[in-house]
Amino acid sequence: MANKQNSTAILLMHCPDQPGIIAVVTDFINVNGGNIIYLDQHVDRVENIFFMRIEWELAAFVVPKDKIEDYFSTLYAAKYQIYFRLYFNDYVPRMAVFVSRRSHCIYDLLARYTAGEWNVKIPVIISNHPDLAEVGKRFDIDFHVFPITKENKQEQEKAEIKMLRQYGVDFIVLARYMQIVSEDFIRQYPNRIINIHHSFLPAFIGAKPYHAAFERGVKLIGATSHYVTTDLDAGPIIEQDIARISHKDTVEVLIHKGQDLEKIVLSRGVEKHIRRKVLTYKNKTVIFN
Amino acid sequence: MANKQNSTAILLMHCPDQPGIIAVVTDFINVNGGNIIYLDQHVDRVENIFFMRIEWELAAFVVPKDKIEDYFSTLYAAKYQIYFRLYFNDYVPRMAVFVSRRSHCIYDLLARYTAGEWNVKIPVIISNHPDLAEVGKRFDIDFHVFPITKENKQEQEKAEIKMLRQYGVDFIVLARYMQIVSEDFIRQYPNRIINIHHSFLPAFIGAKPYHAAFERGVKLIGATSHYVTTDLDAGPIIEQDIARISHKDTVEVLIHKGQDLEKIVLSRGVEKHIRRKVLTYKNKTVIFN
Amino acid sequence: MANKQNSTAILLMHCPDQPGIIAVVTDFINVNGGNIIYLDQHVDRVENIFFMRIEWELAAFVVPKDKIEDYFSTLYAAKYQIYFRLYFNDYVPRMAVFVSRRSHCIYDLLARYTAGEWNVKIPVIISNHPDLAEVGKRFDIDFHVFPITKENKQEQEKAEIKMLRQYGVDFIVLARYMQIVSEDFIRQYPNRIINIHHSFLPAFIGAKPYHAAFERGVKLIGATSHYVTTDLDAGPIIEQDIARISHKDTVEVLIHKGQDLEKIVLSRGVEKHIRRKVLTYKNKTVIFN
Amino acid sequence: MANKQNSTAILLMHCPDQPGIIAVVTDFINVNGGNIIYLDQHVDRVENIFFMRIEWELAAFVVPKDKIEDYFSTLYAAKYQIYFRLYFNDYVPRMAVFVSRRSHCIYDLLARYTAGEWNVKIPVIISNHPDLAEVGKRFDIDFHVFPITKENKQEQEKAEIKMLRQYGVDFIVLARYMQIVSEDFIRQYPNRIINIHHSFLPAFIGAKPYHAAFERGVKLIGATSHYVTTDLDAGPIIEQDIARISHKDTVEVLIHKGQDLEKIVLSRGVEKHIRRKVLTYKNKTVIFN
After folding, report:
1. What superfamily does domain B8-88 belong to in CATH?
2. Would the ipTM clear 0.90, i.e. be above it?
3. A&B contacts, CB < 8 Å
4. How far apart are CA C213 and CA B228, in angstroms?
5. Which CATH code for domain A94-287?
6. Which of A114-118, D15-19, D213-217 has the lowest mean pLDDT?
7. Which of A211, A219, A221 to mutate to test the interface with B (most CBs of B within 10 A)?
8. What is the spatial distance between Cα D267 and Cα D264, in angstroms, rounded to a whole number?
């Protein structure tokens, strides 16, 4: 979707809300020859925080690309207490996918990847089971198995982290990876691990949400993609959706219907992350248009 | 929606699943001159229970209306372990509405009622606050206030039950009645009190669900209509729906958006109840088409 | 929803897209002591048009309220080719409702109106049939009947326009008013007549859309609220929604299910209009958050 | 989802509605030792037609599998004017997929196929362009290109039909096959060609529906899976769904958002067809539960 021809910078920022803050930032870009092609902002009036995503073309921008962060930091960040991240549309982020035995989410990710929908590189798939090795082969992506037991978990995760670094991975997608990731692992990738949970959180946290949904007799099932934090299924929510069910649907039907939800909700979450549309603040997300 | 011209009987039943059970019941009706105009059935293969709703015209039915229950009971219910309820489309059930201060649900119910959409009579509105007395006046429906305190709750509920009997009330709709109903009260109307809860249960049980949804940063809000049981917000679910929200929505916006959900989800639940489309089994509902 | 305590100005504008245009307008407000509490903007990159809605508190704004339009016009509008409208949150717009025989939409509007949800005054209901006179009485709103025939249409519409002026009406809502309004009438209220059409336009334009939907065997029905233009059912769309149906649903069921859609979709459209969230451009709408 | 362990027969039928018709058919099965595991029926009271899908286990059924059609035909079909089709769950239908250049639909089909979700065999993919040859290779499915021009269309379609016969194809899925199929071709596969159209039909029939949707300024986009008939985009609808869009969405975004709709709506339609849940009657479908 992104315009690949023109190099752009993307600034995601938040700061205490204050009069004229939009003008300050847009002026910095305009005055220095940047052409703003995107601006979306939001003011949280409860927390009194201003959020903005702004993107501009660099062709005529007088500040060199590798100095922008420094300049913006020096000139504005301290003065206005701005917390920001700067991205460039010509950098291709590297994403690892973790899977277990079910293939619907990974296939959905790879179908988009292969079609060139996303500005991303997937160098590696990691699994705790060998079942989906074939998927890696089909799409020419390295596939590594790290079987996890209570005893070897710490060690295996260390090996995974080492491998993720070797592959230069920027963020991780848990595509129905049925294994809880340790706090140590999560701390390596803060707000950079995206999980899909097969319920409309906060309902049915933890294992077997479809069984719990069946037991409760709900008329809707859901799925939630979220950043992984050290609290189980409690991280910042990126995307949710639901499907209607009825008393006729067995647990097996819920699982089957849920798969379509899971894969779409996960892929939408991943897409927003790749496109730098997500800003996290205090366990919640701001999702720019 | 119901055909008012022809008198019909409606049988809601469940029994252990067994070969030929549909034929047994349809034969009883056909052989005796009943014209079946509706049949919907469901087999729960986990519990091994057969559920059916069947409706037939009585014009040429040889069993007198007031003997059908007796005959069906004697001839089939014991033999096949059938639990059943029999209704007639020409009986107008009497519904009481309980309210507090917010009017959106009661107006939605009364708009449908006044337009003649439902085969129901609403003889009385009961409230724990006087705020909506005007609504009763507008629609010419008796409006009674029973202020509830910790001290007088038992006594007030007794007075309410007495009044409900005087009005010949068959079932009760809690239209955003912001007061927990006691177990004693509930036991008087088993599966005959319909509540609207302003979340997609089982998420956000209890008070202030929109505040909790805001805190959690969900991307969907919901509403649930359910029968009231002695477990808070845990009774059989009749209907649920959701609306999409975003980080831009304050608690006030959630409350505002939620009102449309609440009124529609409550009215749909009430309509299904009035039309005898709901069968309750083990804290879950079977909703016939 | 609107903050009634502080007086605010709302500017809706569009102009050819040009660098720094946001800064120009926000500067005008900031420099003159206005506190911006809302800003949403959009750039149409096909038409190359910039759209913005901006709202600011007037308490400390140095330009007198009745001079803002003049100042903004002189200082900026000509220079930047800005087309704009200025509103004040303390003006209560006056809305007329047109109905025929079905009451679900008018009740939904009046329930919200009566609950004080909207910053609007409804001084008059106009109908081509006497059927809903009772609704006017219930809510203490003047109700006038203008029966329309081929012969008297021109004359009756003239009388209606005269009456609308007497009531000081700013905009009109056709709440299932089953009568085509003439081009002359429409020209009196450009983009100020909101209609509800009972299909997902542009499918099933014209009369009897539910019958047409049934005939076609669609699996969804819809409703569309839109501004009325001189092309039948072809004006700018404000809001649409759908409901799922099945082969089991007769035309009567479609009509019944459709009513919930119609009233919600109409009320959402009206609310957006009242809250000055809609900007019309070339037969399409920009809907601000 | 189907139970593969027990051999079952599936009867899809319709006939003029008549008293006792359910009992007639269920008796035939019960009396002869069949165990009914599924029954869903529908009466169209406008056309006065009775529809039923019934499935029973064959283990103890006394009529030999290859005689059931004959017996049912002789004993009942003529007498009750029943039109029926008989299927067996242990026959694996053979499906051909037609594609052009976009891969999202074919990947969604193949992901489900590879995961073993469907009781189907896909022996061949046919395309009018070579672009997706790689997909065939990845999933080890024969891929054949038949470039179509005005001049060679008749001849190429003949070659396609010959090939489809060689592959023993039972039905065809047009997975964004951007080429109109001729009437001659369609007549070879009546109600056995499933297409995905990228709009909520009947809106935006024909080419470029997303462009048309953008032009019209709709707030929803849709997708429709339907059987192909000789009227363009006018065949019996199996499944539809929509997604919400806004003024911010360009045609490119509509196309992108629409892809998720298209693939899910097509796969749902295909699944219903494979599971014998669709009965076609007079250009409309009955979809059993």
Report:
1. ACT domain (3.30.70.260)
2. yes
3. 82
4. 38
5. 3.40.50.170
6. D15-19
7. A219
8. 5
